[in-house]
Amino acid sequence: MSDTAVAVDAPSTGQKLTAEVLGTFILVFGVIGTAIFAAGFAAGDGNLNVGFLGVALALGLSVVVGAYAFGPVSGGHFNPAVTLGLAVAGRFPWREVIGYIAAQLVGGILASTALLGILATGPLFDIAVFQGASTGYGVLSPGGYGLVSVFLVEVIATAVFLFVILGVTSAGRAASNLAPLAIGLTLTVAALVAIPVSNASFNPARSIATAIYGGADAIGQVWLSIVAPILGAIIAGLIYKLVFDRAAKLSA
């Protein structure tokens, strides 16, 4: 294939950013929609809600779907922490970071706004459900965990998540077409651990998207759901670059 053909086939900046908007929309719409409409759903005498497991699966499956649909275009980040972690690891150009993060924030806010519109025309409109779907400590923690616990679980879970992303997308990996599945399953497992503690963010775009409609507590605590995932991603990116990438270069 000629250089000209490669240049033509490469996604444009607009296509990449649009893919990040759409992918983040799918992620937030899927997981927050499940948390709002299905996790607490009850009918008659029986509970039909999907619970923590259903929300964790919704998060993982949303990422799998988005990654398969838009990964070939933008890389399928859908998360500012992932974008920053990949940049720190040397796997993503810093010049594109701001555009990606802006696109992810737009996609997340569009999704939560769409969910608000659906909720507003329902039989039991109550914007307080967005507080229940927001991430944080104390009143926002499903298990009543404190700030330190929430901070730790968000840092650790995001670091683990990024380690998996970096590992399964490394050059020379076999069955790279299964990478989105591995990434989504990792996110599901991490969510099963973190939902009772923090409501499982790992994603500043997802946290901001719910916090803007979640009331004073959600807005006041959203800083933690921005800082902790970014810190976890940066730690993972640095370790991967210094340990695994260096070892690969030395053995080459």
Write down the CATH topology: Glycerol uptake facilitator protein
The helical percent reads over 70%
- Overall mean pLDDT score? 89
Give the uncertain stretches in residue-range form. Answer: 1-7
Give the radius of gyration: 18 Å
CATH superfamily: Glycerol uptake facilitator protein
CATH class: Mainly Alpha
Characterization of this structure:
It is a multi-pass membrane protein. One of its GO terms (molecular function) is channel activity. Keywords: Membrane, Transmembrane, Transmembrane helix, Transport. By secondary structure, the chain is an all-alpha fold. The protein has a single domain (9-247), classed as Glycerol uptake facilitator protein. 72% of the residues lie in helices and 2% in strands. It has helices at 3-9, 13-38, 51-74, 80-88, 97-120, 129-133, 147-168, 179-198, 204-211, 216-251; strands spanning 42-43, 46-47. A two-stranded antiparallel ribbon has the order 1-2. β1 and β2 form a beta hairpin. The chain is globular.
Secondary structure elements and their pairing?
Elements: H1 3-9, H2 13-38, E1 42-43, E2 46-47, H3 51-74, H4 80-88, H5 97-120, H6 129-133, H7 147-168, H8 179-198, H9 204-211, H10 216-251
Antiparallel strand pairs: 1-2
Helix pairs in contact: 2-3, 2-5, 2-9, 3-8, 4-5, 4-10, 5-9, 7-8, 7-10, 9-10
Throw out a few tags for this protein.
MIP, Glycerol uptake facilitator protein, 10 helices, Aquaporin-like, mainly alpha, 252 residues, two-stranded antiparallel ribbon
